[in-house]
Amino acid sequence: MDEVQSIVTVLKNKFDTTAILAEQDTIDGIPTLWVKQDHLKVLLQYIKNEIPQPYNMLYDLCGIDERKRNHRTGQPAADFTVVYHLTSLERNHDIRLKTALIGEYPSMVSITDIWPCADWYEREVYDMFGITFTGHPNLKRILMPRSWKGFPLRKEHHSRATDVEPFVLDEQMRMIADDDLQFRPEDWGLQRQSEDTDFMFLNLGPQHPGTHGLLRLILQLDGEDIVDVVPDIGFHHRGAEKMGERQSWHTFIPYTDRIDYLSGVMNNLAYLLPVEKLAGIEIPDRAKVIRIMMSELFRIESHLVWLGTFAQDMGQLSPVFFTFNDRERAFDIVSAITGGRMHPSWFRIGGVTSDLPDGWQKAMQAFVDYLPRRLREYDKVVIRNSIFKARTVGIGVYTAEEAIEWGITGPGLRATGYNFDYRKQRPYSGIDQFEFEIPLGKNGDCYDRALIRMEEMRQSLRIIQQCIDHMPAGNFKSDHPLATPSRKENTMKDIETLITHFLAVSWGPVIPVGEAMIPIEGAKGSNGYYLVSDGSTSAYRARIRTPSFPHMQMVPLISKGYTIPDLLAILGAMDFVLADLDR
Amino acid sequence: MIFILIIAGVLFIVLTIAAGLIYIERRLLGLWQDRYGPNRVGPFGLTQVVADMIKIFFKEDWVPPFSDRPVFVLAPAILISTILLTFAVVPFAPGFNVLDSNIAVLFFLGNSSLGVYSIVLGGWASNNKYSLLGAMRASAQMLTYEVFMGLSLMGVVMLADSFNLREIVEAQRHGWFIFPQFIGFVIFLIAGIAETHRLPFDIPEAEGELVAGYHSEYSGMKFGMFFVGEYMGVTLISALITLMFFGGWLGPAFLPPIVWFFLKTAVFICFFILLRASLPRPRYDQLMGVGWKILLPLALLNILVTGALLLYFK
């Protein structure tokens, strides 16, 4: 806890109580300070640039509508809060800064001049809460259609379409919607021509075979050379965060599966860790190891899809069939264990749904024995192919400093040679008990990102092997009363358990007041759920920090000067899914 | 009468092979990609081609209102006609050719140059940015590969002392030209793939990048003509490789000459399909770089060495 003391003390020494209004206790141990808006930028500058081992990664930026929140003791009065979650990779430590805002549609200073990656985050906060950011270069809606009325994450905004009049798309609205999709280069500060050439604007997407989903990229082209890229996202937005406020703590689990839809239960884990932290549930060892095993299996599945589609982006038609076949083998195991395939929603508050079926070791062992051979083949067919190398080496290069500046995590960060993996640095669910290596790259190009993912699959196999060999005995779910649904065996024996069980399945569990976030190492980067509970049956605020969002924001930076085929290589090597991007 | 029969025969064979290739390619790709391929329509899915053809004929033949209509309609026809015209000079077996031309090789090279117009005009007339980019890539790529495609064949022409394909085959009675002209063969093969813009050189259509490149806007039978045209192109290049480097219809007498010819051609067609199943696509500028910096000098060197040796041994 030295680190905690030191940064908070340092800040308190440097800034007096006019700047720092209060310190808030949090359950996840991340020091949280309330900062006055006028002093925020100075403080951020200081913490980013002036202290040793600075907090130089803007991990997340989000808003909270505080107007209906109960249990705010010790926190300054606020109608809205903007939360800045900063990370120092060197210290391996986080700090959370909050700014209280008063008023129906308050205004806030923009920090885009300190962190360029705050751009999209601030647009998202504006989009969801109607908070305006002064000094933001281009404050527009980002996820919702531009013609949307209201700001969805405000508490007065409806969360079900059935709460309002049926939707009708009349002629006028259609024209407005059409007009919204028109691209006017001037709106983005792009020139239509330079001194010696007229630029071509190419609309890549939302329907395009190379974008892996509903993503729209507008390219400013000089011949085939990319002058600039404007990503237009939000086509896949489903209001997952709003659903988090509507569903009970328990029934939100299936929605999390569909955030990064290739990583299945790994999303459950990212959501459940803070929930269990809030509830104070201690997870039995067996459940922990089962969770690790299934998460790593899904990491392999996600990387297999990435490998196949990346090769296809490079024009190689066959690997996608091979990797999907292999993934199908993994799905056979997943369905034998969980009953589901891509979205098993299998983890529960306090453990997992059910115990492992008989004979699971055999199936898992067969897969662990089978895959390395295939990976060697993919190395030969894809990774060591000279055309593949020619297409990826030296393409989309960024340095570790740039990666940190733009909030890049996961393989994209490690490809630059920066060693930071949440599994090693912030072990969760007992992963520190396992032996595995973190592969690192050197050049930070598309090829290194590919190499790292290949090696990560091998390391995940190692972890799974250790799970098979050393699966602890014991319960698959905690006996804690908030573990949902509580274990059925005891309900017929004592009335307390019966009542708890009945309440947990009818209302859902009531999670104690608090705030928590525990980032995990997802397949695509760091994934974290920032959950605010005000002591009711559902989250007061469920902020989902996904890796694809900051990664996509960096695309314009790293694709300028390359050509269209390179852009597809950059997108492919980035490994994003649109549901993860738009939530 | 015989003449008309031969024309009908050649047309029948070429079109059947092209259509059959749709089936064969899909089955072979299925085999190499660990999946089935079409296997439901008829025995082994053989009548899939018929089903596809019926479908493609009855699809709405849509001409985009923003396109340059006459050129848009004309473009696919150019592709088909240039390739079919080239088949006129291809001898399938002794006496089984439409035209025993003395300039057959030149005729083929000329026609394949004309084929570029089809793609450039099609991409241009579509008035679509993806098509335009595809057409631009196609013209650059095919112009480059045109140059040394012709040069790579000159070694064979020198050895056979003729532009006539029949005489070139006859000249291989005592040894296929693949041995003295191996470099020429490799260059011609690469140029041939680029010329038919098949993977790995399908840069003008590059699905993941340009949607479908120059034929993005085409549908129905107009698309079908590009589609079948590609397979006819593959057949043509394979047939020419057989004729120029692998002794055409020559082979042991237990099989008739025409069977030898088709067997050899089929091997190269399968090779084309195998390439498609295995290789990624290089970038457009890399392809051009290899063409101008490596293949063109090699082709010139090949001519020089072949010529010098011929003069020396004369």
Secondary-structure blueprint:
The complex is a heterodimer of chains A (583) and B (314).
Chain A: H1 2-14, E1 20-24, E2 32-35, H2 37-50, E3 57-65, E4 80-88, E5 93-101, E6 107-109, H3 118-129, E7 132-134, H4 171-181, E8 200-204, E9 216-222, E10 225-232, H5 240-246, H6 253-257, H7 265-279, H8 285-313, H9 319-338, E11 347-348, E12 351-352, H10 360-383, H11 386-392, H12 400-405, H13 411-414, H14 422-425, H15 446-469, H16 495-506, E13 514-516, E14 520-521, E15 526-533, E16 541-545, H17 548-553, H18 555-559, H19 564-574, H20 578-582
Parallel strand pairs in A: 2-5, 6-7
Antiparallel strand pairs in A: 1-2, 3-4, 4-5, 8-9, 9-10, 11-12, 13-15, 14-15, 15-16
Helix pairs in contact in A: 8-9, 8-15, 8-19, 9-10, 10-15, 15-19
Chain B: H1 2-32, H2 48-58, H3 69-87, H4 104-125, H5 129-160, H6 165-170, H7 182-195, H8 207-210, H9 220-245, H10 257-278, H11 284-313
Helix pairs in contact in B: 1-9, 1-10, 3-4, 3-9, 4-5, 5-7, 5-11, 7-9, 9-10
What does the model show?
The complex is a heterodimer of chains A (583) and B (314). Chain A is an alpha+beta fold and 583 residues long. Chain A has two domains: 2-162, Beta Polymerase, domain 2; 240-582, Orthogonal Bundle (Cytochrome-c3 Hydrogenase, chain B), CATH 1.10.645. Chain A is built from 20 helices and 16 strands. In chain A, the strands form five sheets. Chain A has a five-stranded mixed β-sheet. In chain A, strands 13, 14, 15 and 16 form a four-stranded antiparallel β-sheet that branches. Chain A has a three-stranded antiparallel β-sheet with strand order 8-9-10. The longest helix of chain A is centred in the middle third of the chain and has 29 residues, at 285-313. Chain A starts with a helix and ends with a helix. With 314 residues, chain B is mainly α. Chain B contains eleven helices and no strands. Chain B has helices at 2-32, 48-58, 69-87, 104-125, 129-160, 165-170, 182-195, 207-210, 220-245, 257-278, 284-313. In chain B, helix 1 packs parallel to helix 10 (257-278). Chain B is globular, with a radius of gyration of 20 Å. The mean pLDDT of chain B is 84. The A-B interface holds A 200, 202-203, 208-210, 224, 311-318, 321-322, 325, 381-382, 385, 387-388, 390-391, 563-566, 568 and B 29, 32-35, 129-130, 133, 199-200, 202, 206-211, 276-286.
